[in-house]
Write a structure and sequence with these properties.
- It is a single chain.
- By secondary structure, the protein is α+β, with helices and mostly antiparallel strands.
- It contains 17 helices and 19 strands.
- Helix 9 crosses helix 11 and helix 13 packs antiparallel against helix 15.
- The protein is globular and about 70 Å long.
Length: about 450
């Protein structure tokens, strides 16, 4: 070991082997968060090692950030410190797969793509993300990532049966159960959803599975106006049709998602994305009815996608839900998520465009009409130009009022450091914030876990 390394590193070496530590400069820089570079990366190989490392970090008063595959490292506030990155990649054992009871128990470091491949071989699916996602199971829980088919299957909390969590006390807590009907302790699981590892480190999770649909297809409908697209959504919602996903995209987002389909979209137009899945005959019926509704509301074109063509579409849609740790040229430099009620999504999209003013034609705006989410993405060139005259910061500060009438929220999911330095990415703390502060103090008394990244700077 080099003399430039911190003295506390020697005590960490008593807990793990040399092969589980990395102080190589290049990799340390790759694991930086908002410009902060860790002093060491540690790769625990068991839940017990994670607990021991957290207890050690608490004793040494070192800032520690858990990390899965890194797809969401840009989420959250600027850390107050970063000494140790705890990489969960070696917690990659699928410990129990109960095919008969549709449950799976796996380590937090298991890649979602590996889960998708395994379950698909048995005609089952865990509908947390698209099958190609590189996100880890623990990362999806820690960030409470919204599943693309949440309308049909529910969110992470609906698919999560139980979990094991390592705490700074050195203990490993077990919440929930391993069967679908077991709800004991389930509310405790919710505490760790979306907490970015600020309360504890998820080391293992048990999830419920579903049967893989016999048929899975996507429809794209092009509308001359957002109002017409919204009318089609409202009509579908009033029928017995059961899509697993309903998205409305503005022309910029539509052109990114399906460039050939959206090539001739009007400036104020919209692209409607409908996903249908289930038994073959039921999907065929829903496609016919979906087409009829879209045509009746003025759609100028309706297209269908399945198989590899559908996978390609979903990979392009992943600009809003990063599936790899490195930001690609296609991904927005700035990404914002607004939460509202489903029926208000088109109105929120329109209000957002008006708020952005001259930036609106260049902004990627996508509305999930099934669950009430609106996402805004700006390319690097657009964002940087808007930052020079402060117009973007002014718009970002006004975002909460777009969804204020229905008690919604606005979260900046990804932003350059200069934005984070001038803006609370989480927005105003919720009414439950005092409870969160108490939980943080109880579970992490020294404040070592992801300090500053969670709501209110926790």
């Amino acid at each position: 070991m080099m003399n430039t390394q911190p003295t506390w590193l020697s005590s960490l070496e008593t807990l793990v082997s040399a092969g589980q530590l990395d102080v190589q400069a290049t990799r340390l820089h790759e694991h930086a968060v908002d410009g902060l570079i860790p002093r060491v990366i540690v790769y625990p190989e068991s839940a017990e090692q994670v607990a021991a490392i957290l207890h050690w970090a608490q004793r040494e008063k070192l800032a520690l950030l858990p990390r899965g595959s890194g797809t969401k490292t840009r989420l959250g506030g600027i850390p107050r410190g970063l000494d140790v990155v705890l990489a969960t990649g070696r917690l990659n054992e699928i410990r129990e797969y109960d095919v008969a009871n549709f449950t799976l128990t796996a380590g937090a470091g298991v890649r979602f793509s590996a889960v998708a491949e395994l379950t698909a071989a048995h005609g089952q699916t865990l509908p947390l993300q698209y099958a190609f996602s590189a996100a880890t199971l623990g990362g999806l829980i820690a960030t409470n990532a919204s599943p693309p088919k949440r309308l049909l299957y529910g969110g992470v909390r609906d698919l999560l049966l139980g979990m094991r969590v390592a705490l700074p006390s050195g203990e490993i807590a077990h919440f929930g159960g391993k069967v679908v009907k077991n709800v004991a302790g389930y509310d405790m699981c919710k505490l760790f959803l979306g907490s970015l590892g600020a309360l504890g480190v998820v080391v293992e999770a048990t999830c419920k599975l579903y049967a893989l649909p016999e048929r899975d297809e996507t429809q794209l409908a092009v509308f001359p106006s957002l109002g017409q697209g919204a009318a089609a959504v409202a009509q579908i919602a009033g029928t017995q049709l059961l899509p697993s996903q309903i998205l409305l995209l503005n022309p910029a987002a539509g052109s990114e998602f399906a460039p050939q389909v959206a090539a001739n979209m009007a400036a104020g137009g919209a692209l409607l994305v409908l996903n249908w899945e289930g038994m073959d005959e039921a999907v065929e019926r829903q496609i016919i009815d979906g087409t009829r509704v879209c045509r009746g509301q003025g759609a100028v074109a309706v297209h269908q996608y399945a198989g590899e063509a559908q996978v390609e579409l979903r990979q392009r849609l992943a600009i809003f839900t990063p599936c790899s740790p490195r930001q690609t040229a296609r991904e927005p430099h700035l990404l914002v998520r607004l939460g509202t009620v489903p029926t208000r999504v088109p109105a929120a999209m329109d209000a957002l465009a008006r708020l952005l003013g001259p930036l609106a034609p260049h902004a990627l705006i996508a509305g999930d009409c099934g669950v009430g989410l609106v996402q805004l993405g700006l390319r690097q060139s657009v964002a940087e130009a808007a930052l020079t005259d402060q117009s973007l910061l002014r718009s970002l500060r006004e975002l909460p009022r777009v969804v204020a009438p229905e008690g919604g929220y606005a979260v900046v999911e990804r932003a350059p450091l200069q934005v984070k330095e001038q803006l609370d990415v989480w927005g105003p703390p919720p009414a439950s914030f005092p409870l969160l502060q108490t939980l943080k103090k109880t579970l992490d008394p020294e404040g070592i876990l992801s300090p500053g990244r969670f709501i209110g700077g926790l």
